[in-house]
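Structure Section — protein described below
Tokens — whole-number codes for backbone shape
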Amino acid sequence: MERHSRSSSPYSELSCSIPDVRVTIEERNGYTETTAEGIVFTAEGHSTRLLSQMASLRTKGRLLCDVILRIGSEEVYAHRVVLSACSTYFCAMFTNKMMESTQETVTLAEMDPQAVKSLVEFAYTAKIIVNENNVQPLLKAASILQLSEVVGVCCNFLCVQLHSTNCLGIVSFAEAHGCNVLADSAQQYLLDHFMEVVKSDEFVHLSFDRAQRLLYSDNINVSNEEVVFDAVYRWLTYDSNTRKMHAFEMLSAVRLPLLKPRFLAEQVYTKDTLRQNPQCVNLMMNAMIYHSVPEKRLHLKEILNDTPRKGTIGTMFVIGGMESCQNKGTVEFFNARKNEWLLMINSQSTCKRLQFGCAILKSKIYIVGGRNGLRTLNTVDRFNPLTSSWEACVPMCSYRHGVGVGVMSGPMYAVGGHDGWSYLSSVERYDPNMKVWSYVSSMNCARSTSGVAVLNGKLFVVGGRDSNACLKSVECYDPHTDRWANVPDMNVARGGVAVAVLFRKLYAIGGHEISDPLSSVEVYDPLTNVWSMVASMRYRRDAVAAASFGGKVYAVGGFDGSDYLCSVEAYDPELNEWSLAAELRLGRAGSGVATSSDICVSELPK
């Protein structure tokens, strides 16, 4: 048999930096495993060394490079197989019999040369530098070439850099390049920081379409509608000669009925840019009529938008009660713009209590009476949402659990309840200026776990229970005469009932009759002096909390006979239907709910 020496190889005279393959297995880092076919050796770091060698071949004399990428006047040498393995864009180009698959030079248009160079380096090294100077051209090129890892890194970098002075531009850039996650993040930042964004140069340079779409949004974070008008007027007057043709459409974005009448007269109607447009004048006049002639509001709703934006309706709080993870007395608040409940930091009360009364007075939430275990309380605590802190207040004259609380024309009233021995008909009034409790006239009927609400300047007490049964009866208190009067009975006896007032009507929600939780709801119209049944809730709810908020009635938590509920339902009176809203963080029954139009979510502790 003929033998050949190594020197007889046709490649023996060529030098190459590829490692000598005769190195024994023991000299490599790796591991072996025994199979039926023999010993299988796996070399660790093999793919990394392979890619490193490919990069070395490219940088040392462009060895084995088979494609040139031309970007403007720049050229980048590379291996098709490496580009195809890293980029689905190149893989499709080089493997699908496209014209570029056989071309030595491939031209890439609309990309930054340095960005392409960095991306090719990334294909070989798996490393790339992203900074403020190169992130946008890098993201654009990576999006076109479909390098998803680099796209993700660039998007994350821009998310961190979001600011009121650049978020509008980032939204446009992200949408143009199909970066949906970045676009959504920048859009949310824009909505959250609207009041700062409208002061930026980017805002006044927005196109009409984009400016109009932004200003019509329900989700912009504003404290009042006056902020929106100021933004509209700033955009119009930045280039009034060109933009005055859009005055009516832009003024229509402002919910004029929600402006203060004085602001409407002094700051809106006096603007020449608006007064020169007949449509704008008509719009402003209708807004003034809306404020001055209430009986015409229903007709004007067809012309004017009087629905508050989610950022201006204030905040709804739920506090304490029997929670699914024990009675910890925590506070949650509802972010209407983002449709979510959030736990307030450091909000846990030092005093655990159930069957308490809850009301908001001067932007502070008062927790009145209740019981701690078997002990009935007369103590009162006050929670400040802006500082997430508690403080003790003056105690009531009587001990009360199952007490109802309402605020009317300044003073706060604590109504009925149980003192640990008997059901109460007595009522106390708290003067926040004098900081003192005093008795007023007692109810006609002793009752506990009733619903208390204020309607047309009177204090209504609805249902509840006495020593014998759940009650249908309803009473109202006139503070001017210090007298109680009977109101027509409800259709259903309700203990543990929740009440809320919306559009001058009183709603009685859920509760229990005998021992069964109720899903039924009824409404009292003071004009007809009649209770009427409306759509039932989706779930039965005893010890439910309720409030009117943003033009709807909310039923929050409760007990369905077996579980403490975290579900929340919202009632739309125009549709006469309940829909599920965002769930609480914790299941709660017997909690208190308070709403404030003066507290914005953005003001609460983060």
